[in-house]
Design goal:
single chain; mainly alpha; 2 domains; flat
């Protein structure tokens, strides 16, 4: 019976992820955005075992993309005609993000910011108008993926971790009682 329930939860998770993917692609394609796959990647890369973890990862991805986009716009504005200074600035930013990944629980934010800047800044081509359009589209589609995932997972077969939390608290309390009883017997 428990294997059937686990399988059922896995099937539900697969259906919800697929529905979020279809929603993200559908909206991106209906709005005629150039890279609908970016929205799909956001859905796929934010899928974790719980909604809270997924939402946290999605928000870290979105804020990292925002920082990388801001860095790309800044570098493009500062060095529009000097490719060496642009590449040096991009390397310094990526190195800084790599350094900031160490020793923090928010490493994914820095990871996304570090790879977003070169990805976004170099994908627009030589025309600065293409760069800005690419940056805006990347941010919009990342946000679309995160929002699609969150909406589907909160509305379709919503799940709660309350029961698992209460079970864990009960087990820890029982273990604590056993430890206290054992300790008091040794002292007597």
């Amino acid at each position: 019976m428990s294997d059937l329930r686990v399988l059922s939860d896995r099937v539900k998770a697969a259906i919800k992820t697929a529905l979020a993917m279809v929603l993200a692609y559908g909206v991106a394609l209906s709005m005629d955005w150039d890279h609908a796959d970016w929205a799909g990647f956001s859905v796929a890369l934010c899928t974790l075992s719980t909604v809270g973890e997924s939402l946290n990862k999605g928000l870290l991805r979105l804020s990292g993309t925002f920082l990388g986009s801001l860095g790309a716009v800044t570098l493009i504005a500062l060095f529009p005609q000097d490719r060496w200074l642009f590449l040096i600035g991009m390397s310094i930013f990526t190195g800084f993000c790599t350094y900031m990944m160490l020793g923090t629980s928010r490493w994914y934010f820095w990871y996304v910011a570090g790879f977003s800047l070169p990805l976004i800044a170099l994908s627009g081509g030589a025309n600065p108008l293409n760069d800005f359009r690419t940056i805006v589209t990347r941010f919009e589609e990342t946000a679309l993926g995160v929002v699609s995932y969150t909406v589907v997972w909160l509305l379709v077969w919503p799940t709660s971790a309350r029961e698992a939390l209460e079970d864990a608290v009960r087990r820890l309390a029982a273990a604590h009682r056993q430890l206290a009883a054992h300790s008091s017997r040794r002292q007597s």
